[in-house]
Design goal:
The protein has three helices and five strands. The strands form two sheets. A three-stranded antiparallel beta sheet has the order 1-5-4, with no helix packed on it. Strands 2-3 form a two-stranded parallel sheet. β4 and β5 form a beta hairpin. The chain starts with 5 loop residues before the first helix and ends in a 28-residue tail after the last helix.
């Protein structure tokens, strides 16, 4: 995800671009995957593909995104791969090990 270099995008954890589109979707996921995660995976699998970035909240009134993070990365990753093989989530597994990338970002808090 070189093009999603959050260090270059933001110093505060808030950003407007890149915004969501047909190939990128942001989702909050502090302790578990959101219900809409598998709908998005299915949509991307049936089109030209895409990237889902977890740990991002959207303020629709400001058209702005903020980094909220994922509290337990290992649990979320386990849930992704368990549900990937669950017929109630997807007809067939579509996510491979190399499709999941974990990145860490520190937010600088500036006080004036």
């Amino acid at each position: 995800m070189d093009f999603l270099n959050f260090k270059a995008i933001t110093q505060t954890g808030n950003f407007k671009t890149p915004s969501e589109n047909e190939n990128i979707e942001y989702k909050e996921a502090s302790w578990k995957l959101p219900k809409s995660f598998w709908e998005t995976v299915s949509s991307f699998a049936n089109t030209s593909g895409g990237i889902i970035v977890l740990g991002i909240a959207e303020d629709k009134s400001k058209h702005e995104f903020s980094i909220t993070g994922v509290d337990n990365v290992e649990d979320i990753e386990t849930q992704i791969f368990n549900d990937n093989n669950n017929i109630s989530c997807l007809n067939r597994p579509v996510i491979q090990n190399n499709d999941v990338q974990i990145s860490f970002f520190k937010i600088k808090l500036l006080f004036k």
